[in-house]
Design a protein that fits this description.
It is a single chain. By secondary structure, the protein is of the alpha+beta class. The chain is built from four helices and nine strands. 23% of the residues lie in helices and 28% in strands. The strands form two sheets. A six-stranded antiparallel sheet has the order 1-5-9-8-7-6. The record marks 113 as: Lowers pKa of active site Cys.
């Protein structure tokens, strides 16, 4: 992701990377050590993305958005809104009512966070992206103050749609994100 961003040219196409990480806490640039309460056996990695601490693990869809914002005339706030709205629209496909909050980036369902955002912009190009909880072990979130908020409750799609998988969600999420920005999705 870093190498792609460093080496891309004005002609390089935008990309979306869908990944599923092993168990790891990532501490963003605004992260504070006191928000990592009891990591135990899960490694804590410093990240150059925005935001504070979060957890990544199996059953969570991480979507990295590698977009040339400058070339495509997209503002950072517009990108954040596109990410949030793509998740809201994706969840709507499974009748999950979700919403962004103006005071805390991400997407929420009944006050519980289901999706975290963390971006980095370098030379007008974005990297990092979002982490959508689909069907995962949420216990590690109790070991941190997610996104710097003590007691923030996390949720996942499987709480509303038992048995849902990343493969179920991936095509909907990527299509919704592209729709938000007016992009055409081209399969690799």
């Amino acid at each position: 992701m870093h190498q792609f961003t460093e080496q891309r040219t004005a002609e390089t196409g935008n990309e979306i990377w869908l990944v599923e990480h092993e168990r790891v806490f990532t501490q963003g640039q605004a992260g504070k050590a006191e928000h990592v309460l009891a990591p135990g056996d899960i490694p804590v990695i410093q990240s150059d993305r925005g935001g504070q601490v979060t957890y990544h693990g199996p059953g969570q869809q991480v979507m990295y958005v590698l977009i040339d914002l400058k070339r495509d005339k997209i503002g950072v706030r517009e990108l954040v809104s596109a990410l949030e709205n793509s998740v809201v629209e994706t969840l709507k496909q499974w009748n999950i009512e979700a919403y962004p909050r103006p005071d805390a980036p991400g997407v929420y369902v009944a006050g519980n966070k289901i999706c975290s955002l963390g971006l980095r912009i370098r030379n007008g190009r974005s990297f990092h992206g979002l982490a959508l909880n689909i069907n995962m072990d949420l216990e590690p979130f109790h070991r941190i103050n997610p996104c710097g908020y003590a007691g923030l409750a996390m949720t996942q799609m499987a709480d509303f749609v038992p048995g849902i998988t990343l493969a179920d969600v991936q095509p909907v999420l990527t299509a919704q994100f592209c729709r938000q920005l007016g992009f055409q999705l081209a399969a690799e």
